[in-house]
Design a protein that fits this description.
heterodimer; A: about 170 residues; alpha/beta; Rossmann fold; 5-stranded parallel β-sheet; 5 strands; about 30% helix; elongated; B: about 270 residues; Beta Polymerase, domain 2; 5-stranded mixed β-sheet; two-stranded parallel ribbon; about 20% helix
Chain lengths: ~170, ~270
């Protein structure tokens, strides 16, 4: 028995919070979005800037992981080439459920200015995308806003039952 | 600096549709003007056939037979002090001549000269590798094969270098479409999902500037978001941008500017 004399009835109430499982789980999920480092081109530089001290993604609980098995968010930052398409799909499949994808920048959204034979015209041809960020390249603020939007999206989803995995087809 | 030309009447003359416009040529000079190059050319001429030789932009260009490429480069490297192959590749002249032009750009730091060896080969013809002489030719020759389909004989590792190994076609040929042929258009779908997924995933949208205001499957207006696929031809509701849900977030306190403290003493 602890010896400290805390009057729970007076000093700020009992240390008990009443809530639902949904809220607790979603609170945890939305505030510990671990992102896979997926810098493919110049957008990757902005993504790194978002993670560094000035924009500081750690505040949102977003920590970049180098392994897809520890990540639940894939920020596709940059131009996806057709040669690389099968690897992005393989890495996406290796991520554990639940997982989300942010397509960052024009190239990842639509192929952007690379209207050529070797560029995938939008990563949504290969993996299902949750959020599209416009910009070339988007500023770190835009990526932060996207993460906040994603947090809202996660909080809206029911956590208590198994989520349906997203399917491209 | 280039002289300024007024752009007001740019529509008056159509510069781009003039069928008889001839691109200005860089002037060619005789090799005898430069003693160093003249000596090099003499050395090449003593052993090999030289089809053409001239000086352009202070560099000598020597056109030789394709069969002599290894021997000429060996001569230049070992006897004429050109120890570096700074660049090599091919040029597609298939439409006009039915031939590829292969060029070898040589550099001599000792002589402070650059020299270019050129030769022409047919479309199906192979060329001898110079990788034994210059290690830099290793990847250049692989790239030449990857981009033009020029096969290089005696190369240690003749494989595509940039495109995937199962790629069809040679992208830098003038006949290759910029946006790819059918194989290129479906490459990632075929590779990942299989050919049967083509109908489900659909063709590529090659018009990135296309914006359909009423297409709610591909576009959403910021501040006017609606669920996927909603018909908004009759107008859509306002959804103001919010950083958090209206009622606040579970266990997360909203930032209150009045409660915050501004620290004026940084050594506090």
């Amino acid at each position: 028995m602890a010896q400290h004399q805390v009057n729970y009835l007076k000093d700020g109430g009992l240390p008990v919070a009443l809530t639902t499982i949904d809220k607790v789980v979603n609170w945890g999920r939305s505030n510990s979005i671990w992102a896979l480092t997926y810098g493919l081109a110049c957008c990757g530089i902005e993504m790194m800037a978002s993670g560094a001290s000035r924009y500081d993604f750690d505040r949102f609980g977003t920590i970049f992981r180098a392994s897809p098995r520890q990540a639940e968010l894939m920020v596709v930052a940059g131009t996806l080439t057709k040669k690389h398409a099968e690897f992005i799909r393989r890495l996406y499949d290796q991520m554990t459920e639940p997982k989300w994808v942010i397509s960052m920048g024009s190239c990842a959204n639509t192929g952007g200015m690379f209207n050529t034979y070797s560029t995938v015209q939008g990563v949504d041809r290969v993996i299902p995308v949750d959020l599209y960020l416009p910009g070339c390249a988007p500023r770190p603020e835009t990526l932060q806003y996207a993460v906040m939007m994603l947090q809202q999206k996660i909080r809206k989803e029911p956590a208590s039952r198994a989520q349906k995995p997203k399917r491209l087809m | 600096m280039r002289a300024y030309t007024p752009k007001d009447d740019v529509q008056k003359k159509s510069y781009y549709t003039d069928r008889f416009w001839v691109a200005p040529q860089v002037p060619k000079y005789d090799v005898s003007q430069d003693a160093v190059f003249a000596a090099d050319l003499e050395a090449i001429k003593a052993k090999f056939d030289v089809l053409d030789a001239y000086i352009q932009v202070n560099q000598m260009v020597v056109v030789i037979h394709a069969n002599d490429n290894y021997a000429v480069l060996e001569l230049l490297k070992n006897e004429r002090e050109y120890p570096q192959l700074s660049e090599m590749s091919a040029i597609d002249w298939l439409a006009s001549e039915g031939k590829f032009e292969i060029f070898y750009q040589m550099l001599s730091m000792a002589k402070r000269k650059r020299l270019r060896i050129k030769c022409k080969i047919d479309e199906k013809e192979a060329i001898q590798s110079v990788e034994k002489l210059f290690r830099s030719a290793d990847w250049s020759e692989r790239e030449m094969y990857d981009m033009f389909g020029v096969v290089v004989n005696n190369h240690p590792f003749m494989k595509r270098i940039l495109m995937p190994e199962d790629w069809e076609g040679f992208p830098l040929r003038k006949t290759y479409p910029l946006q790819g042929d059918e194989f290129a258009a479906w490459y990632e779908v075929d590779r990942i999902f299989g050919k049967e997924a083509r109908e489900i995933i659909g063709p590529e949208n090659r018009d990135p500037a296309r914006v359909d205001r009423y297409d709610t499957q591909r576009f959403s207006r910021l501040g006017h978001e609606v669920p996927f696929g909603t018909d908004i031809s009759q107008g859509e509701p306002d959804t103001p941008l919010v950083y958090q849900e209206q009622k606040g977030v579970f266990m997360i306190e909203k930032f209150d500017a009045e409660k915050s403290v501004v620290i004026s003493d940084r050594h506090r």
